[in-house]
Amino acid sequence: MKKIILTTLLLTSSIFATINVATTYNYLGEVTKAIGGDLVKVDVLANPKLDPHFITPKPSLIAKLRREDLLIINGGGLEIGWLPSLLKSANNSKISDGFLDVSGAVTMIDKPASVSRAYGDVHPDGNPHYALDINNITPIAELISMKLSQIDPSNSAKYSANFDIFKKNIENLMVKLEPITKGCQGKKIIQYHELFNYALEAFGVKKLGNIEPLPGISPSSKHTLELINLIKNQNITTLLQDVYHEKRTARFIVDKTNAKVTIVPHDVGATDTADSLNSFYTEIATKICQ
Asked: Across the beta sheet with 206-210, what order do the strands follow?
């Protein structure tokens, strides 16, 4: 009788066993949930409404990392300012030695010829904000599917099937958004930070300047006045603003020009209306191209 009970318990625990996965950002959490389904339990480390470059290493995040089986990161240097200290404190060999960096699934742009503080807060490997281009999310999802299958080979068919569904959903969304994005080819914009470059390139939008004179450097009065003149001379009507940088400078520019400020999400959940991958990419397309 005891053997029967023990066998039943073991079978039950295997049925309900899940892979504990931490992701650094919300978009990665949404992809992992879509691919893993009820086979994964996902914890997201960063608050999507805050600057993704700087996350406060709270004790609660350390506790989460100690129980994870897998860590999935954006990579490209985006987490370099906050993740290493968390990993050191968590001291979880499973994720310290084997986390998944999804930047390997994409081709990064804006790689600097040289790295120096004179050029601001640049990323040696290139611009890490590649997830804002919908074309990059499917290869990222495929990489996550492959990693989950490696960890849990008995369920690889489920991960593969979920990826196929995910891929089809993204393809359908891209078809839906195509009339919107085609309409903004050649549009001229100014953005705050080098944040939307991947989406702008995909849409054929021309970025003529940044409110930041250099990445991570606050705008000076001289640079702001130069932007105002540029906006007037080039008849630029749109300033792309993220949710976490100061908005005072953009409002000042708007007061001096005919441009308007458009808030664009950098992650799922950055705005209240971008609460899923579909709404996230829909909002990026509509906000940039409106």
From this structure: 206-210, 188-191, 238-241, 260-263
